[in-house]
TrEMBL record:
The keyword Isomerase does not apply. Belongs to the ABC-4 integral membrane protein family. This is ABC transporter permease. GO terms for molecular function: transmembrane transporter activity. It is found in: Cell membrane. GO terms for cellular component: plasma membrane. Its main location: membrane. Residues 295-409 form the ABC3 transporter permease C-terminal domain. It comes from Salinimicrobium profundisediminis.
């Protein structure tokens, strides 16, 4: 064991000397490994960060939650031209399903509308996300109220101009003042502040609830019109804990078919999407992104591998005389083999560590400029980067190491003289 530690120590110093004595040649050869590791880990980290951001936005919702809409979250056999003709789910359909579907804990009608500016006195909160929902959404996502309350069913149905502020919006407009009962301007009209949400993370509506406000859906319906396809209406359904989701989806589908008057041979002109299926779709997409990223990065690693092999062949040629002397003094082939093999691995790992450092640097810069989006460089990804570097060094150094170990000591000394 001690002899291998000594070989590792000597190989480390030989690798460092190679870097010192042939800086330009070595750095150019390591550039391929550095770029390859940077590409692989950057792709893995970016995909992991994106997956965490998307799944984090759904974390407050039950994984069995269903979203009824004209869009499909996954692949389907319906042609795109036909899907584009599907009608949006209507408020009347939401009311009908609310009355007729059993085993549902909560059901909410939701509109997706563009961000707006909100004003209070001389202060303005810009690009605020508008969550236009019916009152039941409070139970679906289990929203946490810091002050005041959420709007009730009567306010939701009548379209009372009330608003619940996200924490960041509240601080931008009111600072530390009490906002309850105050009037803010939204859509050119006055809304009474009835609640402020606790500061929290990501949400279904993108970004964070901290930068959103909640308003009764019927207020927004009056502004945009009841049949505006640009609002992408959806019905969000939270099943009872013991409900059979497959049976519930079948029942909802049948009820909506009946309401729309579809014939037996007509296909469903709507989709009942489950968040569980959405997370599966996300996993599939991130898997494909990782796959293509690894293929592209593999070319850089291939170039880097040839670069390491080139360094090692040159190193063997330069140290032929030393190899002969070592062998004449009793060094075994295995000792020479491991000496050059360790050196190749160490050089590749150095290139990989440089790549990891560049990814870490890039993650800091990206996180600074993207605000709430956090670019994550995980310990697992760093381990992958280091392990891949070591494997590249091992593969690249095996042939030069074998050629060095098989040198005849007499011929090696004579050649080096």
């Amino acid at each position: 064991m001690l002899i291998y530690l000594r070989v590792l120590k000597e190989s480390f110093f030989f690798a460092i000397n190679a870097l010192k004595n042939n800086k330009l040649r070595t750095m150019l050869s390591l550039l391929g490994v550095t770029i390859g590791i940077f590409s692989i880990i950057a792709v893995l980290a970016a995909v992991d960060s994106l997956e965490k951001e998307i799944k984090g936005s759904l974390s407050a919702l039950d994984n069995r939650t269903m979203i009824l809409t004209r869009f499909s979250f996954g692949s389907n056999e319906v042609p795109q031209w036909k899907r584009e003709q599907f009608p949006d789910v209507s408020y009347e359909e939401y009311e009908y399903l609310s009355r007729s579907v059993p085993e549902v804990s909560a059901m909410s009608y939701v509109l997706n509308v563009p961000p707006e500016n909100i004003k209070y006195s001389d202060k303005t909160a810009s690009d605020v996300g508008i969550a236009a929902v019916s009152a039941e959404y409070y139970d679906i996502e289990a929203l946490q109220i810091e002050e005041g309350r959420f709007f009730n069913m009567a306010e939701s149905v009548s379209g009372t101009p009330v608003v619940v502020l996200g924490h960041d919006v509240y601080e931008n407009l009111f600072g530390s003042r009490n906002a309850l009962g105050e009037q803010v301007r939204l859509y050119g009209r006055k809304f009474s502040v009835i609640g402020v949400l606790e500061k929290k993370g990501a949400s279904l509506f993108g970004g964070s609830h901290d930068t959103n406000v909640f308003v009764p859906v019927n207020v927004v319906r009056r502004i945009y019109g009841g049949s505006n396809r640009g609002t992408f209406p959806q019905i969000v359904i939270k099943p009872e804990p013991d409900a059979d989701t497959n049976e519930l989806i079948a029942y909802i589908s049948q009820q909506l078919r009946n309401f729309r008057g579809l014939r037996r041979d007509d296909i469903n002109n709507f989709f009942v999407n489950q968040l569980e299926g959405f997370t599966d779709l996300i996993d599939n997409m991130t898997g494909q992104l990782n796959f293509f990223g690894l293929i592209i990065s593999g070319f850089s690693l291939l170039v880097g591998g040839f670069g390491i092999a080139n360094i090692m062949f040159v190193s063997v040629k330069e140290r032929t005389n030393l190899i002969g002397i070592q062998k004449s003094l009793g060094a075994k082939n295995k000792f020479i083999l491991f000496q050059f093999l360790f050196e190749a691995v160490i050089l590749a790992v150095i290139g990989g560590l440089i790549g990891l450092f560049l990814v870490w640097l890039a993650s800091l810069i990206v996180s600074q400029f993207t605000g709430s989006f956090e670019f994550i460089l995980s310990t697992w990804n760093m381990f992958i980067g280091t392990a891949v570097s070591a494997v590249i060094g091992l593969i690249s150094g095996i042939v030069p190491a074998i050629s060095a170990s098989k040198l005849d000591p007499v011929e090696a000394i004579r050649t080096g003289m």
